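Entry:
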Amino acid sequence: MKHTTPTRKKAELTTRPRRPRPPLLQRVLFYLGIFGPGLIAANAGNDPGGIATYSSMGAQFGYSMLWVMVILTVGMGLVQEMCTRMGVVTGKGLSDLIRENFPLRLTVFIMFVFLLANGGVIVSEFIGVAAALNLFGIPSWIGAPCGGLLIWLLVARGSYKHVEKIFLALTFVFFAYIFSAFLAKPDWGAVAVGTFIPTIRPSGSYILMIVAAVGTTISPYMQLYVQSAVVEKGIGMHEYRYERFEVWVGAIFSNTIAFFIIVSTAATLFVASHGVGVPISSAAEAAQALAPFLGIFASRAFAVGMLGAALLAAGVLPLSTSYSLSEAFGFERGVGRAFHEAPFFWGLFTLLIILGVIVAMLPNLPVIQILLNLYLLNGLLLPIILFAILYLVNQKRLMGRYTNRLIYNVLSYALTILVSGLAALYLLTQVLGFFGIQLFR
């Protein structure tokens, strides 16, 4: 019998061929395949309201508000990650957890906050549809109803998922802001200072813009969407590290686009005002920041991107809102059910679209100002949602050993308290202003 010496065994082990690494294309496709809920939820913030907010930040305050986006990127990643983790661990959506873990009255209140916040954003999407079509010469009274009817038919007939990819592709027009930011030749020293050194201006308009930026970047509907999407995909804890990576990549990617929107509008519109800063009053003015890259085509390209973003969100938002509220109160739901089988679900979905269309049809709307105010409303309501999320994610009976770690709680509560303080300060300035008292000049 032939014996194998230990030395020979060792040699055989070391010379055994290694398992070949998967081809580069296969690895790239794998990492692209994990992108989904987190990336979509994050990029939903770059809708017409988001473009209006970020463009106004750059046009009115130059580079001085870039630091806000750094903080909001971290905050967005934290909040999205917590909701994703809750979805993976519990297998339930956020509205389901709220219904099961809060008293009835508090559940109704939180769901009302969601409805109010989401309803405002839905209105903003149809205003965005109308504003984009206006740039092609189509009046709002035609564009808004056509957009509403298109979205309703696509969702009701179950074909929205296929068209969704087309709308998503149209939003890639906003990559042009990155090129415009470089071609406009901004003062990169001022960009660095604005990014890393916080500047606080004691003015009501500055506080309004920060609260609107918070409401745009960390919108309540994003939390509902990302948690429900994770549950629907059936992601388990063994896959969670990939989903967590995707959430953070989504936050960074989305807010990088927002960062360059601010830089490009600051380098064009703010500089054109000789550093005084002027509010943006129309979609056509917001499109001017793309002129360094797209020239005379800036307005049309901006309209295409905004139309895609608005239609994408105009389908997702009423649908996810109807799902969440039906789920929270135990009503039948689902696009596969007929109207008589799920009257609350279909009734609310239809009502939200009609509301958005009616507001968007109103003549002579101050589009940018309305979009800013709707996301300001989101920022004011957000603290209520954040406190509910923090309560749920720290419940051991729900999350087991996957509750927040200390550093997560410190950062998350700091964000929530900061947002609450800004919202309270803004409301205080409005109340005092009603009595003729100016807190800021």
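The domain at 38-434 is CATH 1.20.1740.10 (Amino acid/polyamine transporter I).
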